[in-house]
Amino acid sequence: MKIAYFDCFSGISGDMCLGAIVDAGVPLKKLEGELKKIPVKGYEVHAKKVKRAGFSSTKVDVIQSSKLKVKSSKNWKDIEKIIKTSLLPKEIKQKGLGIFRKLFEAEAKVHGEAFDNVHLHELGDIDCLIDIFGTIIGLDMLGAEKVYSSPVNLGGGSVKTEHGILPVPAPATAEILKGVPVYSTDISNELTTPTGAAILKGLSLGFGSIPLMNIERTGFGAGNKNFKDRPNVLRLFLGEQWPLACDQDDERVKVIEANIDDMNPQVYEYVMEKLFKTGALDVFLTQVLMKKGRPGIKLTVLCKEADRERLIRIIMKETTTIGLRIYEVKRAVLQREIKLIDTEFGKVRVKFSRLGDEILKATPEYEDCKRIAKKLKIPLIEVMKKINLQYPFYLPESVT
Question: C-alpha distances in angstroms, 173 versus 105, 122, 182?
Fold first, then answer.
């Protein structure tokens, strides 16, 4: 599986994304050809090689026609109409709509306005459209099936906006990046823009160190500033994910634990169901012996960083615990997919677990087997046995 990784050590913006993608090998003319499927005119996309602190990189600029010196300011319905009437593939449209929704939601929140009344202000709708869709289309051209990112450098100091001089990060940037690991260096400049933040939040499946991968291409997208002591660039890595490498958001997970010895056992089922619905990757109970010889239960929850705070609130509100342990672990998982298989009982979902192209395990879904057992009024164990005899899932080499 081919993956892309954005290294945001000097922040991220829309033009930096485009620069990194062109630098990684996407022909500008080919990219422009796809962008023409969006019904907007009056702009040109220019790319040139520049140096940032001695490093070669590509600077991409969206130049608007002189007739459009005054930027239009479109609201959500205007942008939505442009995207939906474009000739782009459905999947690319959906990704773009998701990113723009994050932008408008952030602007509405920080300015205290209704979602449908918000305008992009200094973001400029043509710039945004080209930056966002150029990035989505470019990643597709590069064959990236999944996207991951490093923690994000926000920069520091202040930034001049239509609403005056504001501290970095800009309010909309901070709102978009909730739940994303960020940091700030001693650079007194805005390194991450709202558009760059929205692209990351909309496309990245996880934030952390570089996943296990074989790097095939790199791209360097130049920012507007040229700092003397550090390159103002966005690095893009593209390559094949190692077979046993799990998704970046799965590889590093948070563990939340609580020891409980004073709660009605009937409550656990309700709590576990609520935790799963809120995004927990796994929830399990372990019997433990606590102080003074009291029997107790250790509640353990595995989750992504983005879901941690919501899950903590549920545990604190719905159980009797007064404290939690939280730490990070790594895990390795096989690649998984579910397929519908024809059996004597009809179609049954089967979970296939792979190591690269090799199937190591295949298991009929329990819920499907239970449904069949209830419908036919035969023992569940008999249903599972017959399906396994018909399709010996315990023998990987027999699965086609």
Answer: 11, 13, 11
The one-letter amino acid at 317: K
pLDDT digits (tens, 9 = 90+) for 163-175: 668 788 888 999 9
Residues 6+ apart with CB under 8 A from 115: 76, 104, 105, 108
Q: What is the pTM of this model?
A: 0.66
DSSP element (H, E) containing 222: strand 213-222
Q: What is the pLDDT of residue 200?
A: 95
For a pLDDT cut of 90, what percent of the chain falls above it?
A: 61
Distance CA 18, CA 59 (A): 8
Using CA atoms, how far apart are residues 378 and 154, in angstroms rounded to an integer?
Answer: 61
Mean of the per-residue pLDDT values of the chain: 88
Q: Are 301 and 280 in contact (CB under 8 A)?
A: yes
Summarised one tens digit per residue, pLDDT across range 308-327 is: 999 999 999 999 999 999 99
C-alpha–C-alpha distance, residues 268 and 210, integer Å: 37
Please answer whether residues 150 and 178 qualify as being in contact, where contact means their C-beta atoms are separated by less than 8 angstroms.
no
329-345 residues labelled b (16+ CB within 10 A) or e (exposed): eeeeebbeeeeebebeb
The CB density around residue 377, as the number of other CB atoms within 10 Å, is: 6
What are the C-alpha distances in Å from 125 to residues 78, 79, 133, 195?
Answer: 10, 8, 12, 11
In angstroms, the CA 55 to CA 314 distance is 48
Task: Identify the bridge partners of residue 296 per DSSP, sorted by sequence position.
Answer: 288
